[in-house]
Amino acid sequence: MSEPTDAPAGGIPGPRTAHPHSRPRTLPLPPATVPAGPEDADMTDGLEEAYWSVHDGAAASASVPQVLARLPKITALIGRLAWQADRASTLTAVLCQLASAAMAALGLIASVGVLHHLFSQGPTPDRVRAAVPQLLLVAGFLATRALLEAGVATAQARVTPKIRTALESEFLRLTAHVRLEAVEDADWHDEVHRANDRGLFYARMIVGQVVALASAALRLIGTAGVLGILHPALLPLLLLSVVPVGVAAVHSARARFRSFKRWNALQRRIRVFSWLLLDVDAAAELRSDAAQGALLDEHRRLTTKIAEEDTRLGVNAALLHLAGRAVGGVGTGITYAALAAMLIAGWLPLAAGAGAVLAIQVGQSSLTQLIEVAHLVYEHALWVDDLLAVQERSRRLLPRTSEVRAPERVKEITVRDVHFTYPGKDTPALNGVSFTLRAGETVAFVGLNGSGKSTCAKLLAGLYEAQRGSVRWDGVDVLEMDAQSVQRRVACVLQDPVRFPFSALSNITVGTGTLTEAEPRRAMAAARAAGADGVVEALPGQWKALLSKRFKGGQQLSGGQWAKIAVARGLYQDAVLLLLDEPTASMDPPSEHAVYEAVLRGRLRTDQITVLISHRLASVVDCDRILVFDGGRIVESGSHDELMAAGGDYAAMFTLQASGYRTGGHRSGSPAAGEAGP
Ligand SMILES: Nc1ncnc2c1ncn2[C@@H]1O[C@H](COP(=O)(O)OP(=O)(O)OP(=O)(O)O)[C@@H](O)[C@H]1O
């Protein structure tokens, strides 16, 4: 044995006969019928509170003061984002908005001037002639206002995509770097997807909504100002006319939010079926076992429900609108009666009265818009808040940074008494693991499922940090080094490698941080060593072939072919440490043999340390050392021959696998590459 291990004092344990996790079976027989999804009565239950819909309908349940109280904060937030994204356009939008509101108010005053001339004494042609200058003024104000509004829209069109791009880039930059253990948390997944799906979408929408909110608020203020100038008693009259309209608008906005929430929940349920029916990956299985019929039936059942729901919501909305108009109409009637009384009493000239009617109409429409948009802004801002909160949380979960960079060459990696327990777990995944890896060595990790091999590999890759013990590169603790610089010096090839929907060449270079630049000779050597050269050669377009059926002209690879590309990607990286976590599980036996030959003998860097995790023990016999994991510890360590001679766990597993093959492999007594889990 070449490496001290923490094997039990009583010697190496014998082979296991029963699975450690087996337990008595208590599962009853399944029922004869089962619903395909939620029943009619509870179609949206459980969906409404799902992570992606938590804020849907929030505006419907918030009180009016709650909505109003949040508006200044939201406006300030959007203003800040806009300012950071594009100062000139933000300033233009604000100034144009203010000037446009002033033009609206001046236009109203000029209209009263026109009415004043039209309602004065004298022959009609004279009255019209006298009103012409005021009419030109009204036209001038209206034209200027139109130009200013175009200025607001142009500035908004400039600033909105910038806000979205800035938010999206920052969001993706942060979330792409968050530490692995945080990403593996289920809540994290929910939060990130919510921020991506909804937060970014509403961040774009909310800019226009805040502009509309400001425009409506300014118009309302302008109207109040004009009425105050005409006669101070008109101000309470404005209030009297707008309050019923406001109440109706609040009710109708809330009803719309409630109905949207339900409609959205139903839509999402339906989309599960359309996704499955359209999905390329599911296509073969759906067709081979006639599952389409079952999915289409369920889809039809749900769409019928949606159609009924749509009609119900439409009728409700129409009735609510009618009720709103009736309430608003009563308010307007009372207002006009009061106005008539003021005119009869001689408090107000006729022209001012007519101007007041105009102003009140503008005030009512501004308030309705204000209330509708305020509800939209309130609810959508919750999603934007979520997005910003995820960004903030991501900043706290970034890997450690340091001036100390991982070296390009390493003679020795020492792992000493490393402990690691996954968050939320009681049992440690690694419970005091020690070993040394030397430059140029190939070391295999073997052991039962769940014994800690992959966790140990991820620790070596710098993806997790040891909670106790240390991992040192030539004596320097990796925790003192910049985490990303360590990760860059380690190449990982995992069992289920990412299938990048890019060209074959980009799939090989992506691990070095580029999709577009390649070192041709190195790429060819890596592809050859992994057996991926044959895969690429057979593709139309070869290196440039797009590896995704989702795109026009894209190619589909088999699982084994993808594995070869992934191994080539790992070999292409100029890594100090190459970690292969069962990369050949989906390869055919000759391909698997070729990859192990390449890893053992054809590596591109002779000083590279290679760690190989495999359940197929035939592939590890030629490794310099084999570490046997059990329950988060290393229980045996040595070469194949040493471990076979020791007659412990490894020997038992190997003999079990070997007994599954009639003929030996490239060593006497060793199994040919094939699958037989220990
Ligand atoms: N992301 C994770 N979160 C929580 N627990 C985990 C996570 N990954 C692994 N574990 C647990 O840690 C223990 C060790 O798992 P690990 O994947 O390291 O084992 P392994 O030896 O690589 O297994 P296998 O041969 O099945 O790949 C197991 O109990 C497993 O359930």
From TrEMBL:
It is found in: Cell membrane. Residues 413-656 form the ABC transporter domain. Residues 204-379 form the ABC transmembrane type-1 domain. The keyword Flavoprotein does not apply. Its main location: membrane. Residues 1-39 are annotated as: Disordered. One of its GO terms (molecular function) is ATP binding. Keywords: ATP-binding, Membrane, Nucleotide-binding, Transmembrane, Transmembrane helix. It is a multi-pass membrane protein. The keyword Membrane applies. The chain crosses the membrane at residues 90-119, 131-148, 201-221, 233-253, 334-360. It comes from the Bacteria. InterPro entries: AAA+_ATPase, ABC1_TM_dom, ABC1_TM_sf, ABC_transporter-like_ATP-bd, ABC_transporter-like_CS, P-loop_NTPase, Type_1_exporter. Pfam families: ABC_tran. This is ABC transporter ATP-binding protein/permease. It comes from Streptomyces flavotricini.
